[in-house]
Write a structure and sequence with these properties.
3 domains, alpha+beta, 202 residues
């Protein structure tokens, strides 16, 4: 088991880095973002997880032990493979994931490419009670500001889904209603978005 790597960055791209370790270039899949934005020549230390498949050996690397631990928990959820787990960590910090699960809020996970509503809900249910032991950085543990307009958009979108509309068309209708100057209250925005959706079906 390769638990960590330290070496010089030889190359880096979207979601991967190659580290020079003992004369060998080791390719490591990493969350897109800060880890992937490394420049050749700098030194990098990664906590790693080696995933063994019949046709491949793939290393996944993370800046912190909390990210590595969350990755291990995520890939234990039915329907979440290493790529999806890496996608979650590209979108969310461990602290954000902990808060989403604690609030039973699957919306942050639905933003991850390849994770649909059912899998997002399964993640929040499956991870409940399993993240308490994650050691978060002080900066990561701080609360995240909530955009009230975005929260209203999510709330009205869910209301339209409850009326039978799918998520993409419901969200677009809400955004269109907002752009058209609909009053930013739950009832008024819902009414305006619903009118747009019904008009489109005629």
């Amino acid at each position: 088991m390769i638990a960590s790597l330290r070496g010089e960055v030889l190359a880096a791209g979207a979601g991967w880095v190659v580290l020079g370790v003992g004369g060998v270039g080791m390719r490591v899949e990493v969350p897109s973002g800060r880890t992937a934005q490394r420049t050749p020549g700098e030194q990098l230390f990664l906590h790693t997880s080696l995933i063994v498949r019949e046709d491949s050996l793939t290393l996944y690397g993370f800046d912190t032990e909390a990210e590595l631990a969350l990755f291990g928990i995520l890939i234990g959820v039915s329907g979440v493979g290493p790529r999806s787990g890496l996608g979650v960590l590209s979108e969310l910090s461990p602290g954000e994931a902990v808060r989403a699960v604690a609030a039973e809020d699957d919306k942050p996970f639905r933003k991850v490419s390849g994770i649909g509503p059912k899998t997002a809900k399964l993640i929040t249910v499956s991870l409940a009670g399993k993240l308490a032991g994650l050691e978060l950085d002080a900066t990561d543990a701080s609360p995240v500001a909530v955009d009230p307009d975005e929260a209203l958009t999510e709330e009205v979108t869910e209301g339209l889904q409850g009326l039978g509309w799918n998520e993409p068309e419901a969200r677009q209708a809400v955004l269109d209603a907002r752009d058209a100057g609909a009053e930013l209250s739950n009832a008024q925005l819902l009414r305006a978005a619903l009118a747009l959706l019904q008009r489109g079906r005629r």
